[in-house]
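Weekly puzzle thread! Below is a chain. First person to post its structure in token form gets bragging rights.
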Amino acid sequence: MLGVLQLAVLAQENADGDIDLGSILLYILVGAIVGVLARFLVPGEDPLGLIGTIVLGIVGAVIGGWLAGAVFEDTEGVDWIASILVAVVLVLAVRMFRRTDTRTRT
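Winning reply:
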């Protein structure tokens, strides 16, 4: 029932329950993969840089993993799909807000 990132954190936690450097790097890696896949799936120019893509991917993975766990009992593979879909929606939202922002400045 847990998403990709929640499982990654649970697997990387120390005995004290602290999140170690490996967990943080895993968050960044999963976020980068999800963010890049989302940007490839949405055609056109993107206003995001590398850091923006990773942040967008992390947010998409967390929300998508949570949604997959809330809807499906067994989330094996579904959480990745949900994470990418949420990240695609976030890419579209960023583009929409960037377009309206640049139109209001002129």
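Puzzle host: Confirmed. Bonus trivia for everyone else. Residues 4-105 form one domain.
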